[in-house]
Amino acid sequence: MSIQTTTFAVVITSYNYRDFVVEAVESALAQSRKPAQVVVVDDGSTDGSDTLLRQHYGEDERVTLICGTNGGQFEAFQRGVAAVQAEVVCFLDSDDHWAPDYLARLGELYDTRADVGFVFSDMRHFGQEDRLVGFNRSAVDLGHTAIITYAMARWYGAPTSALSTRTKWARKVLDLPDSFRETWRLSADNCLVFGSSVLGAHKYYLPTGSVWYRIHGKNGWWSNLGPSQTYINRLRSRGLINHYARVAGIDDSCIALCKLEYRTKPAPLWAETKRYAALALRSRAPWWKRIEHAIAILLGHSKQA
Q1: Nearest CA among 174, 175, 167, 156 for reference residue 272
Q2: Partners of 211 in the beta sheet?
Q3: Domains along the chain?
Q4: Count of other CB atoms within 10 angstroms of residue 214
Q5: 293 vs 101, 129, 181, 264, CA distance in Å?
Q6: pLDDT digits (tens, 9 = 90+) for 105-142
Q7: Contact partners, residue 303, CB within 8 Å, separation at least 6
Q8: N or C: which end of the chain has fewer CB within 10 A?
Q9: What is the pLDDT of residue 150?
């Protein structure tokens, strides 16, 4: 296995988080494995964030500062990624921060696994909550997730500050029609998560314990969604997934390939196995072939276990 020295860029997007943004930037600059770039995008803040950032980093060669009019999180992602000149881009919200070993932990994986295109981590909630949130207790090589994401809208990812991806995937994912900018002014991490899955990135979950996700009054909206907003959010996500599927040439006929996608996962979790077995029963294959595929998936997990 060849070992490479992967270069990292950090993209920090900020809107009216003057009280927090410097802490976020400093946590990126303080990494034990230094990023090649730290790109800070101020999305038209009106609270003096842009002035504060210019005072702190206007002459700092380590920081690329981009200040512009307010366009929302998705457009801020686009601006930031356009400035990246590194192999991997890590995203950080301006109200969060990282422990100093975060990029070092990611680098150990990206350096040795050229096939992995997208890595997400666990998060420690702090502020108004105190708990650890993650996909699993230990690392999971998720392999490819295009078909199951298309068919079941599975979300293989985390909020922005725990996401990283090879830059080539970030650019593919963010190449969306202008009409998507307004829809994804907020929660644009859905574009990163769904897009990377459906377009074909190899995904990996790596718990690091190094991402600190701040819970406060301005970002607690997602925990109090009513039925209407939940429906609208899921409808928008379905439309986003369908767009990426059209780009990738994926439709219902591809569900028949779910057994092959399942085999890209070296040690799938039991819950994942059950999902793929259920998905196999939904393909267009003859009924006996669907049952055969479902049984093969279930037996495959038993052999690995």
Answers
A1: 156
A2: 98
A3: 8-247 (3.90.550.10), 252-304 (no CATH)
A4: 22
A5: 43, 43, 40, 15
A6: 999 999 999 999 999 999 999 999 999 999 999 999 99
A7: none
A8: N
A9: 98
